[in-house]
Each structure stands twice: as C-alpha cells, then as structure tokens.
C-alpha cells in the first residue's frame, strides 16, 4: 500500500502536516511533518502534498552509506539509530519527499504511520491509501465510499 495524492483536491489547509507532526512528535509544528504541502507557482492556489512514494527500489536507500533505510512490509523506513544525518538520501530522492528540521538530526520521511496513515484525515480526500497497482493505474475507489 502507498499514499496517492490528488493535487487538484488539495485546499492547502495543511491539516495533513499538522496531524503528522502531532502523531510523530506530539507537537503542533507542521515543519516537523513527514508530508509537506507545496504551493505550485506561477499559479497560486494550486497545492500539492509531497510525500514518500514508498518506491520498490528506493534511490534514498541505495544512497544511504549507513544502510539506515530499509524496506519492511512494503514500507520504506529510516532507522534513526543508524542514520548519521549525511543527507545523501535527500539528494537521491527524485521526488523531494524527504525533509529536514533543524531540531531533528535525521531526515523526515513518511513511514505510513506503520500502516495507519494519519494524513488520511484530509477533509478534501486529496490523500488516499491505495495499492501500488491502483496508484500506478490511476484507478482508485473514493475513501468515503468504503
């Protein structure tokens, strides 16, 4: 399973960032979120949540000299105990889906909240939890229809 982002539905409310920081760090600080809402320019008002795509062959994992990034149960995870903070994973990710915060010595990347993504709280349903096949094909069932 992976997260699918539907940018045209995103209202730019940043609730996904807020819930992520609360879940992982118990603080109301969207800058500590593992998902980021980017505003696309030159067209203001178009927002796009950026989040790890849980790649089958992650470039971030290949780039990590400490082997701190692994795949387990389909989730690409960062072992914060092994990570030295070199940031090679950030440079390697073609989607810009790893983030930094000055208070945190390791990169922030989505871990799907261990299989229960909190960002699905999105009131506009701009973020869905779908199979890899559904994400590739573009076919997905609206979460509210479950």
Secondary-structure blueprint:
Layout lengths: L1 E4 L9 H11 L10 E5 L5 E5 L8 H5 L5 E4 L2 E4 L9 H5 L6 E3 L2 E5 L18 E4 L1 H6 L9
Antiparallel strand pairs: 1-8, 2-3, 4-5, 6-7
Tally of DSSP β-strands: 8
Q: Structural class given helices, strands, pairing? A: alpha+beta
> How would you characterize the largest beta sheet?
2 strands, antiparallel
N-to-C series of helices and strands: EHEEHEEHEEEH
Q: Radius of gyration, rounded?
A: 15 Å
Helix content: 10-25%
Cα distance, first to last residue?
16 Å
Can you list the strand order of the major beta sheet?
Answer: 1-8
Q: Provide a count of the helices.
A: 4
Provide an overview of this structure.
Helix content is 18%, strand content 23%. It has two domains: 1-51 and 110-146, no CATH class; 54-96, Alpha-Beta Plaits. The protein is globular, with a radius of gyration of 15 Å. With 146 residues, the protein is of the alpha+beta class. Strand 4 (69-72) and strand 5 (75-78) form a beta hairpin. The strands form four sheets. Strands 1-8 form a two-stranded antiparallel ribbon. 28% of the residues are buried. Residues 140-146 have low confidence and may be disordered.
């Amino acid at each position: 399973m992976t997260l699918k982002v539907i940018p045209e539905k995103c209202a730019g409310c940043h609730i996904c960032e807020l819930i992520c920081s609360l879940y992982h760090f118990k603080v109301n600080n969207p800058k500590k979120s593992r998902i980021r809402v980017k505003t696309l320019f030159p067209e203001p008002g178009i927002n796009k949540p950026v989040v790890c795509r849980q790649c089958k062959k992650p470039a971030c994992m290949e780039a990590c000299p400490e082997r701190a990034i692994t795949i387990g149960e389909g989730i690409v995870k960062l072992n914060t105990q092994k990570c030295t903070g070199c940031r090679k994973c950030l440079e390697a990710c073609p989607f810009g889906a790893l983030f930094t915060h000055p208070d945190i010595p390791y990169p922030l990347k989505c871990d799907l909240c261990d299989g229960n993504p909190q960002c699905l709280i999105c009131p506009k349903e701009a973020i869905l939890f779908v199979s890899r096949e559904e994400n590739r094909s573009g076919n997905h069932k609206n979460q509210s229809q479950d």
